[in-house]
Protein backbone atom coordinates (compact mmCIF):
# COMPACT_ATOMS: atom_id res chain seq x y z
CA UNK A 1 0.00 0.00 0.00
CA UNK A 2 1.33 3.47 -0.86
CA UNK A 3 2.08 5.94 1.93
CA UNK A 4 0.65 9.46 1.73
CA UNK A 5 3.01 11.95 0.06
CA UNK A 6 3.82 15.46 1.31
CA UNK A 7 5.99 18.20 -0.20
CA UNK A 8 8.13 20.68 1.73
CA UNK A 9 9.28 23.89 0.05
CA UNK A 10 11.96 25.22 2.39
CA UNK A 11 15.62 25.99 3.03
CA UNK A 12 18.36 23.51 3.90
CA UNK A 13 19.86 23.69 7.42
CA UNK A 14 23.33 22.12 7.26
CA UNK A 15 23.12 21.48 11.01
CA UNK A 16 20.11 19.22 10.46
CA UNK A 17 17.84 20.79 13.11
CA UNK A 18 15.46 23.00 11.11
CA UNK A 19 14.35 23.57 7.52
CA UNK A 20 14.16 20.76 4.98
CA UNK A 21 16.00 18.37 7.29
CA UNK A 22 13.49 18.84 10.15
CA UNK A 23 10.58 18.58 7.72
CA UNK A 24 11.73 15.31 6.15
CA UNK A 25 12.47 13.79 9.57
CA UNK A 26 9.02 14.81 10.77
CA UNK A 27 7.35 13.36 7.66
CA UNK A 28 9.24 10.07 8.08
CA UNK A 29 8.47 9.86 11.81
CA UNK A 30 4.77 10.30 10.99
CA UNK A 31 4.86 7.70 8.17
CA UNK A 32 4.53 10.14 5.29
CA UNK A 33 6.69 9.94 2.14
CA UNK A 34 8.53 13.27 2.01
CA UNK A 35 9.46 15.18 -1.13
CA UNK A 36 11.24 18.53 -1.23
CA UNK A 37 11.98 21.71 -3.14
CA UNK A 38 14.99 23.56 -1.73
CA UNK A 39 14.73 27.35 -1.76
CA UNK A 40 18.11 28.16 -0.24
CA UNK A 41 21.22 26.61 1.23
CA UNK A 42 22.18 27.84 4.67
CA UNK A 43 25.55 27.29 6.32
CA UNK A 44 24.13 26.85 9.79
CA UNK A 45 24.60 25.02 13.07
CA UNK A 46 23.06 25.17 16.55
CA UNK A 47 24.88 28.46 17.20
CA UNK A 48 23.68 30.45 14.20
CA UNK A 49 23.54 31.06 10.47
CA UNK A 50 26.90 31.77 8.80
CA UNK A 51 25.63 32.23 5.27
CA UNK A 52 22.65 31.96 2.94
CA UNK A 53 22.72 31.07 -0.75
CA UNK A 54 19.25 31.40 -2.29
CA UNK A 55 18.20 29.40 -5.34
CA UNK A 56 16.68 31.29 -8.28
CA UNK A 57 12.87 31.30 -8.02
CA UNK A 58 12.66 29.62 -11.44
CA UNK A 59 14.65 26.64 -10.14
CA UNK A 60 12.50 26.38 -7.00
CA UNK A 61 9.47 26.15 -9.30
CA UNK A 62 11.27 23.57 -11.49
CA UNK A 63 11.74 21.36 -8.41
CA UNK A 64 8.11 21.74 -7.35
CA UNK A 65 6.83 21.00 -10.86
CA UNK A 66 9.04 17.90 -11.14
CA UNK A 67 7.50 16.54 -7.93
CA UNK A 68 3.89 17.53 -8.72
CA UNK A 69 4.05 16.17 -12.27
CA UNK A 70 4.93 12.69 -11.01
CA UNK A 71 3.88 12.08 -7.41
CA UNK A 72 0.45 12.18 -5.70
CA UNK A 73 1.17 15.04 -3.31
CA UNK A 74 -1.57 15.26 -0.67
CA UNK A 75 -0.24 18.24 1.31
CA UNK A 76 2.38 20.97 1.01
CA UNK A 77 4.34 22.87 3.64
CA UNK A 78 6.32 26.06 3.02
CA UNK A 79 9.12 27.19 5.33
CA UNK A 80 12.04 29.51 4.53
CA UNK A 81 11.22 30.97 1.10
CA UNK A 82 14.13 33.45 1.30
CA UNK A 83 13.22 35.93 -1.46
CA UNK A 84 10.22 37.95 -2.64
CA UNK A 85 10.60 36.36 -6.08
CA UNK A 86 10.19 32.86 -4.60
CA UNK A 87 7.21 33.85 -2.44
CA UNK A 88 5.56 35.35 -5.54
CA UNK A 89 6.32 32.33 -7.73
CA UNK A 90 5.01 29.86 -5.13
CA UNK A 91 1.92 32.07 -4.68
CA UNK A 92 1.24 31.88 -8.43
CA UNK A 93 1.31 28.07 -8.28
CA UNK A 94 -0.97 28.12 -5.25
CA UNK A 95 -3.38 30.42 -7.10
CA UNK A 96 -3.61 27.77 -9.85
CA UNK A 97 -4.75 25.29 -7.18
CA UNK A 98 -1.62 23.14 -7.53
CA UNK A 99 -0.61 23.14 -3.83
CA UNK A 100 -3.20 21.07 -1.89
CA UNK A 101 -3.65 21.40 1.90
CA UNK A 102 -1.14 24.24 2.00
CA UNK A 103 0.52 24.91 5.38
CA UNK A 104 2.44 28.21 5.31
CA UNK A 105 5.09 28.77 7.99
CA UNK A 106 6.32 32.29 7.17
CA UNK A 107 9.91 31.88 8.38
CA UNK A 108 11.57 35.29 8.74
CA UNK A 109 14.29 35.12 11.38
CA UNK A 110 16.10 32.15 12.99
CA UNK A 111 16.09 31.66 16.76
CA UNK A 112 19.71 32.85 16.66
CA UNK A 113 18.46 36.20 15.30
CA UNK A 114 19.63 35.80 11.69
CA UNK A 115 17.37 37.02 8.86
CA UNK A 116 16.06 34.26 6.59
CA UNK A 117 13.69 36.37 4.44
CA UNK A 118 14.11 39.53 2.38
CA UNK A 119 12.02 42.29 3.99
CA UNK A 120 10.48 42.95 0.55
CA UNK A 121 8.87 39.49 0.72
CA UNK A 122 6.61 40.36 3.67
CA UNK A 123 3.95 41.92 1.46
CA UNK A 124 4.08 38.98 -0.92
CA UNK A 125 3.21 36.74 2.04
CA UNK A 126 0.34 38.96 3.18
CA UNK A 127 -1.29 39.44 -0.20
CA UNK A 128 0.09 36.64 -2.38
CA UNK A 129 0.49 33.41 -0.41
CA UNK A 130 -1.74 33.71 2.67
CA UNK A 131 -5.04 33.81 0.72
CA UNK A 132 -4.24 30.33 -0.68
CA UNK A 133 -3.19 28.68 2.58
CA UNK A 134 -5.27 26.12 4.49
CA UNK A 135 -3.43 27.41 7.57
CA UNK A 136 -0.64 29.87 8.35
CA UNK A 137 1.62 29.29 11.38
CA UNK A 138 3.72 32.36 12.30
CA UNK A 139 5.42 32.66 15.69
CA UNK A 140 4.77 35.71 17.88
CA UNK A 141 7.52 37.80 16.33
CA UNK A 142 6.54 36.97 12.74
CA UNK A 143 2.92 37.79 13.59
CA UNK A 144 3.94 41.20 14.92
CA UNK A 145 5.85 41.94 11.71
CA UNK A 146 3.02 40.74 9.46
CA UNK A 147 0.33 42.70 11.31
CA UNK A 148 2.44 45.72 12.30
CA UNK A 149 1.23 45.54 15.90
CA UNK A 150 2.68 44.20 19.13
CA UNK A 151 1.43 41.19 21.09
CA UNK A 152 1.69 41.79 24.85
CA UNK A 153 -0.67 39.21 26.32
CA UNK A 154 -3.00 36.32 25.56
CA UNK A 155 -5.87 38.60 24.47
CA UNK A 156 -3.55 40.19 21.90
CA UNK A 157 -2.57 36.69 20.72
CA UNK A 158 -6.26 35.84 20.12
CA UNK A 159 -6.87 39.16 18.31
CA UNK A 160 -3.80 38.59 16.16
CA UNK A 161 -4.96 35.12 15.11
CA UNK A 162 -8.27 36.66 14.00
CA UNK A 163 -6.49 39.49 12.16
CA UNK A 164 -4.29 36.97 10.30
CA UNK A 165 -7.49 35.22 9.22
CA UNK A 166 -8.65 38.53 7.74
CA UNK A 167 -5.70 38.28 5.33
CA UNK A 168 -7.51 35.38 3.69
CA UNK A 169 -6.01 32.14 5.01
CA UNK A 170 -8.45 29.36 5.90
CA UNK A 171 -7.04 29.29 9.42
CA UNK A 172 -4.20 30.82 11.43
CA UNK A 173 -2.09 29.68 14.37
CA UNK A 174 -0.16 32.24 16.41
CA UNK A 175 2.47 30.02 18.04
CA UNK A 176 3.50 30.87 21.57
CA UNK A 177 6.88 29.18 21.79
CA UNK A 178 8.63 32.36 22.86
CA UNK A 179 8.29 33.39 26.49
CA UNK A 180 6.45 36.71 25.98
CA UNK A 181 3.25 34.93 25.03
CA UNK A 182 3.31 32.25 27.68
CA UNK A 183 1.93 31.69 31.13
CA UNK A 184 4.64 29.89 33.13
CA UNK A 185 4.60 26.15 32.57
CA UNK A 186 2.42 26.11 29.45
CA UNK A 187 3.13 26.49 25.73
CA UNK A 188 -0.01 28.13 24.35
CA UNK A 189 -0.73 28.51 20.63
CA UNK A 190 -3.86 30.35 19.52
CA UNK A 191 -5.83 29.08 16.52
CA UNK A 192 -8.34 31.01 14.39
CA UNK A 193 -10.35 28.37 12.55
CA UNK A 194 -12.39 30.73 10.38
CA UNK A 195 -15.18 31.02 12.96
CA UNK A 196 -13.63 31.32 16.41
CA UNK A 197 -10.36 31.23 18.28
CA UNK A 198 -9.25 28.41 20.57
CA UNK A 199 -6.03 27.38 22.28
CA UNK A 200 -3.62 24.48 21.79
CA UNK A 201 -1.97 23.94 25.17
CA UNK A 202 0.90 21.68 26.24
CA UNK A 203 3.38 21.52 29.12
CA UNK A 204 6.32 23.91 28.71
CA UNK A 205 9.63 22.03 28.36
CA UNK A 206 12.52 23.84 30.04
CA UNK A 207 15.31 23.32 27.49
CA UNK A 208 17.62 25.31 25.22
CA UNK A 209 17.09 22.63 22.52
CA UNK A 210 14.32 24.29 20.55
CA UNK A 211 15.96 24.68 17.14
CA UNK A 212 13.42 23.70 14.49
CA UNK A 213 10.28 23.71 16.66
CA UNK A 214 8.29 25.81 14.19
CA UNK A 215 9.39 23.81 11.15
CA UNK A 216 8.53 20.55 12.89
CA UNK A 217 5.09 21.78 14.02
CA UNK A 218 4.16 22.95 10.51
CA UNK A 219 5.56 19.78 8.88
CA UNK A 220 3.64 17.61 11.35
CA UNK A 221 0.45 19.52 10.50
CA UNK A 222 1.06 18.84 6.79
CA UNK A 223 1.79 15.18 7.55
CA UNK A 224 -1.46 14.68 9.45
CA UNK A 225 -3.38 16.50 6.68
CA UNK A 226 -1.77 14.11 4.18
CA UNK A 227 -3.13 11.23 6.29
CA UNK A 228 -6.60 12.72 5.80
CA UNK A 229 -7.16 14.28 9.23
CA UNK A 230 -9.32 17.40 9.34
CA UNK A 231 -7.45 20.60 10.20
CA UNK A 232 -8.54 20.79 13.86
CA UNK A 233 -7.42 17.20 14.50
CA UNK A 234 -4.20 17.69 12.49
CA UNK A 235 -3.22 20.74 14.56
CA UNK A 236 -3.88 18.94 17.85
CA UNK A 237 -1.88 15.91 16.66
CA UNK A 238 0.97 18.17 15.48
CA UNK A 239 1.07 19.96 18.85
CA UNK A 240 1.30 16.62 20.62
CA UNK A 241 4.06 15.43 18.25
CA UNK A 242 6.19 18.57 18.60
CA UNK A 243 5.84 18.62 22.39
CA UNK A 244 7.13 15.03 22.58
CA UNK A 245 9.98 15.82 20.15
CA UNK A 246 10.99 18.85 22.27
CA UNK A 247 10.83 16.76 25.47
CA UNK A 248 13.05 14.15 23.80
CA UNK A 249 15.54 16.80 22.64
CA UNK A 250 15.78 18.08 26.21
CA UNK A 251 17.48 14.77 27.08
CA UNK A 252 20.42 15.09 24.68
CA UNK A 253 23.29 17.51 24.00
CA UNK A 254 23.92 18.00 20.28
CA UNK A 255 25.87 21.17 19.51
CA UNK A 256 26.84 24.06 21.76
CA UNK A 257 23.84 26.29 21.02
CA UNK A 258 20.12 25.66 20.57
CA UNK A 259 20.10 21.93 19.90
CA UNK A 260 17.66 19.99 17.71
CA UNK A 261 14.52 18.03 18.59
CA UNK A 262 14.28 14.27 18.93
CA UNK A 263 12.02 13.59 15.93
CA UNK A 264 12.09 9.81 16.23
CA UNK A 265 11.79 9.32 19.98
CA UNK A 266 15.34 7.96 20.21
CA UNK A 267 15.80 9.30 23.76
CA UNK A 268 12.48 7.97 25.03
CA UNK A 269 13.09 6.05 28.26
N1 LIG B 1 10.10 25.02 25.30
C1 LIG B 1 8.95 24.61 24.76
N2 LIG B 1 8.15 23.73 25.41
C2 LIG B 1 7.01 23.29 24.86
N3 LIG B 1 6.56 23.68 23.65
C3 LIG B 1 7.29 24.58 22.96
C4 LIG B 1 8.52 25.09 23.46
N4 LIG B 1 9.05 25.94 22.54
C5 LIG B 1 8.19 25.95 21.50
N5 LIG B 1 7.13 25.16 21.75
C6 LIG B 1 6.02 24.85 20.84
O1 LIG B 1 6.60 24.52 19.58
C7 LIG B 1 5.77 24.97 18.51
C8 LIG B 1 6.58 25.94 17.63
O2 LIG B 1 6.51 27.22 18.21
P1 LIG B 1 7.62 28.36 18.14
O3 LIG B 1 8.85 27.88 18.86
O4 LIG B 1 6.98 29.60 18.63
O5 LIG B 1 7.91 28.42 16.60
P2 LIG B 1 9.18 28.99 15.80
O6 LIG B 1 10.21 27.90 15.82
O7 LIG B 1 8.61 29.26 14.45
O8 LIG B 1 9.66 30.22 16.52
C9 LIG B 1 4.55 25.60 19.19
O9 LIG B 1 3.56 24.60 19.33
C10 LIG B 1 5.09 26.04 20.54
O10 LIG B 1 4.09 26.19 21.51
C1 LIG C 1 16.76 26.64 6.74
C2 LIG C 1 16.01 27.10 7.95
N1 LIG C 1 14.67 27.14 7.93
C3 LIG C 1 13.98 27.57 9.02
C4 LIG C 1 14.66 27.97 10.16
C5 LIG C 1 13.91 28.44 11.36
O1 LIG C 1 13.40 27.35 11.98
P1 LIG C 1 12.19 27.33 13.03
O2 LIG C 1 11.60 25.99 13.07
O3 LIG C 1 11.30 28.49 12.79
O4 LIG C 1 12.89 27.40 14.34
P2 LIG C 1 13.84 28.17 15.19
O5 LIG C 1 15.12 27.47 15.03
O6 LIG C 1 13.87 29.58 14.72
O7 LIG C 1 13.19 27.98 16.51
C6 LIG C 1 16.04 27.89 10.15
N2 LIG C 1 16.76 28.24 11.24
N3 LIG C 1 16.71 27.47 9.03
TrEMBL record:
One of its GO terms (molecular function) is ATP binding. InterPro entries: HMP/HMP-P_kinase_dom, PM/HMP-P_kinase-1, Ribokinase-like. Keywords: ATP-binding, Kinase, Nucleotide-binding, Thiamine biosynthesis, Transferase. GO terms for biological process: thiamine biosynthetic process; thiamine diphosphate biosynthetic process. It catalyses: 4-amino-5-hydroxymethyl-2-methylpyrimidine + ATP = 4-amino-2-methyl-5-(phosphooxymethyl)pyrimidine + ADP + H(+); 4-amino-2-methyl-5-(phosphooxymethyl)pyrimidine + ATP = 4-amino-2-methyl-5-(diphosphooxymethyl)pyrimidine + ADP. One of its GO terms (cellular component) is cytosol. Pathway: Cofactor biosynthesis; thiamine diphosphate biosynthesis; 4-amino-2-methyl-5-diphosphomethylpyrimidine from 5-amino-1-(5-phospho-D-ribosyl)imidazole: step 3/3. It comes from the Bacteria. Residues 13-262 form the Pyridoxamine kinase/Phosphomethylpyrimidine kinase domain. Catalyzes the phosphorylation of hydroxymethylpyrimidine phosphate (HMP-P) to HMP-PP, and of HMP to HMP-P. NCBIfam families: HMP-P_kinase (TIGR00097). PANTHER family: HYDROXYMETHYLPYRIMIDINE_PHOSPHOMETHYLPYRIMIDINE KINASE THI20-RELATED, PHOSPHOMETHYLPYRIMIDINE KINASE. This is Hydroxymethylpyrimidine kinase /phosphomethylpyrimidine kinase. It comes from Asanoa ishikariensis.
